[in-house]
Amino acid sequence: MNPHILHTPAIDLDSCVIYQIYPMSFQDSNGDGMGDINGIRQRLGYLTQLGVDLLWLTPIYRSPKRDNGYDVADYHTIDPAFGTLAEMEQLISDAAARGIGIMMDIVANHTSIEHEWFVRALAGDPRYQAYYVFRDKAFVDAHPITSIFGGNGWQYVPQLDRYYLHNFDASQADLDWDNPAVRAEMAEVINFWLAKGIKGFRFDVIDMVSKEWSRLAMSNGPRLHDYIRELNQASFGGKGIITVGETWGADLAHMQHYSNPNGSEFSMVFNFEHLGLGRDKWSSHFDPLAFKRAMARHQTGLHGLGWNSLFLGNHDLPRAVSRFGDDRPEWREVSAKLWAMVIHLMQGTPFIYQGEELGMTNRHWQADELRDVEAINYRASQSELDPAELGRRLDAIGRDNARTPMQWDSGPRAGFSTAAPWIVLNDNHVAINAAEQRARPDSLFHCYRQLIALRKAHPVIRHGDVALLDEEDPERISYRRRWQDPITGARHTLLLLANLTERPLVMPHFDQVEKGATLLISNYPGEPAATFAPYQATGWLMTT
């Protein structure tokens, strides 16, 4: 381990806020049009001002980038496009000096076919063939799999006369976690990065590492929780590390297992039910009632029994304000503040995806501008779909929306790079950028700063229970949280009311605001009245 690496102390799960960085699109420091590690170092002052505790970096390992780094070719090596291992160690140290930890992305379900293990497997080494899910034709015929990215999930290898499983791109071969050697390799990878001073790990599609062949289930297999507990004990367990598992198929029972307070598995999970993407995400629309019901179920079901993650966007999702709010210029910022308040005042660990704190939006995509393999494959497979509808779907849901460069200023390349970026900029960076918002006290950026500070200051936000109000109302989100101080006996109540529409609405629970209540936060100036303005959201604190 580098003796010069400065280590941050263990980070409190209940008070921390995590900021996700997509390194390719965050900050370019060397003028090649792609973000890098030194670019992140350059922006640590910005992240310190925002007030976040952990920086989750999507994969920066050596990779052919067929799936933008989620096709790992070497878990121990930094991809030269991002920098060097020494620069990564310096980032860990520089961030720690500011009280910020680094969270690595662990892609444990699959590797690139360029990984040494797979190369050796193709060369005929039986040890490494056992690292992957290789099967003969009879098995493949009996177990047809469709790749998440489209097409057949089995890839034929002529020289072996066998097929390997790829639940994603054909260049991403699934590992066989039923092999103890694979599980030991993953524990070694985590321990390698722990020794570098890493304070957190996010586990990509971890619910897929145990397969159930009898029912062709690629997630939530019979040994899933056994494998996670084993990994915990062999690597990060008991070390004060923040961990989160990406679990698209987790129900409440699985979420309770993953985030058991005894620390046997993960700190928390990403559950995506509240996003309303459904089985066919491309044709999905946001449903406020489904969102409210899912969040209420998770908040209630995990209170005291597990821990929730709180998020609206990430590198795989559309921009939050475009999905949930109203990204038209006249409403973009006020509706983005509303959704920030709705999420950040719940119980759990908030995740902020880069640019979310600025209200960055989706954009309109031309076919030759697409970079995401999923979007490119989807477009190619939809020849019978009306072109206008296809364009609408790509604009609304495509993952490239989240990957446009971070909008630092109004300059020609938004302060991201001195060269043409690897993916197109959003033209609205002239109006939506960090420089403008940092200079304006009432901006969305400063709203996020306020929400982060409120979480750290008020135990009711961290520990209080949650009761959803207006449960069957698609036009409002309202909830009440309560917590009693075990030392003083004081009772603290937080009340959040939000109008989801672009018209004024009477708020039925406004009369619950007690005399002497503290107005914690509002996205409109002045004292709130019972009739809320369009997209108005307000939170109060009451203590008895």
From TrEMBL:
Q: Where is the Glycosyl hydrolase family 13 catalytic domain?
A: 20-403
Pfam families xref list: Alpha-amylase (PF00128)
What family is it from? Belongs to the glycosyl hydrolase 13 family.
Q: What name does this protein carry?
A: Alpha-glucosidase
